From TrEMBL, chains A, B:
Transmembrane segments: none
Family matches, as InterPro entries: Tscrpt_reg_Rrf2, WH-like_DNA-bd_sf, WH_DNA-bd_sf
Gene3D superfamilies given in the database record: Winged helix-like DNA-binding domain superfamily/Winged helix DNA-binding domain
PROSITE patterns in UniProt: HTH_RRF2_2
Protein name: Rrf2 family transcriptional regulator
PANTHER family: HTH-TYPE TRANSCRIPTIONAL REGULATOR YWGB-RELATED (PTHR33221:SF15), WINGED HELIX-TURN-HELIX TRANSCRIPTIONAL REGULATOR, RRF2 FAMILY (PTHR33221)
DNA sequence: CTTGCCGTAACATTTTCTGTTACAGATGTG
DNA sequence: CACATCTGTAACAGAAAATGTTACGGCAAG
């Protein structure tokens, strides 16, 4: 399982919900979203469940149930989606604690944490600059 | 296996090589580096092998063998290390091709690729801003 | 009450990383 | 030249995580 596709799945689902709403379709079921993403409905329910807990989508239960956006596409950024699906850091520290008797082993982790933190902030800035409305616009013109 | 620690291992090794050189130690063996990182020497050889192919370190074979930096610590950036160890993208696209009969399924991948490309560039900018000399300085003051 | 769909548990599969052992090859030293 | 030392790499085991899949309880509209 190469890279993490959770942000991709969630963004795809949200973009699809935004387009459906613009076309007058109130809600979409997990089956309908899964048909577009081409995966299992349970994957979609798990992803949309994360987004619901973050307040980005709403769900209706019972017969005629389905999902819809909880706010305008312009007001949902990819950063919010990233946080909602639990984005993981691109770089990890040592799996086992380094040798603390070595000066490098002792000081490298704080130094790396600082650098990796700057990288994470750069990622967040880029993601905060793109909304679901942006994604929808770029998607339908492609 | 949570995140990718390859950049961490490689940076640790390079920082340790830089400090050893400053202390007058010409080369370090993979065993000596492994003792600081607290892992198996083969892991270190694999990592330093990547760095050697990228021209960042040199290796001496035979008896009295070992590794040394191929250039000054100021001239090795974390971006070069990232490329040397084959850094993977933080976000992946769909595992299976989306449904191309859906407008979102058709257009989402180019849109995501564009956004993810901007994120990747932001990461590279940050990594290019930090050198092994920077890491060594931050490490020994911690 | 029936039907349709969500929520979630449980499990199989796949992939990747890390760690480990083993051994061939290279090279300085005596 | 023989030897000791260390690299380069293959082969394999184990662990962890993501994804996909089946199954089933629960909720709500008609």
């Amino acid at each position: 399982m190469a890279a993490n596709s959770r942000l991709t799945i969630a963004t795809h689902a949200l973009t699809w919900l935004a387009l459906a709403h613009r076309r007058g379709q109130e809600v979409l079921t997990s089956d309908q979203v899964a048909a577009s993403v081409n995966t299992n409905p349970v994957i979609i329910r798990r992803s949309l469940g994360d987004l619901r807990r973050a307040g980005l989508v709403e769900v209706r239960h019972g017969a005629g149930a389905g999902w819809s956006l909880a706010r305008a596409p312009e007001e949902i950024t990819l950063l919010q989606v990233y946080d909602a699906v639990g984005g993981e850091q691109p770089f990890g520290l040592h799996h086992t604690e380094p040798n603390l008797e070595c000066p490098v082993g002792r000081g490298i982790r704080p130094a790396l944490t600082q650098t990796y933190g700057r990288v994470e902030q750069a990622i967040r800035r880029e993601l905060a600059d793109t909304s679901i409305a942006d994604m929808l616009r770029e998607t339908v013109t492609n």
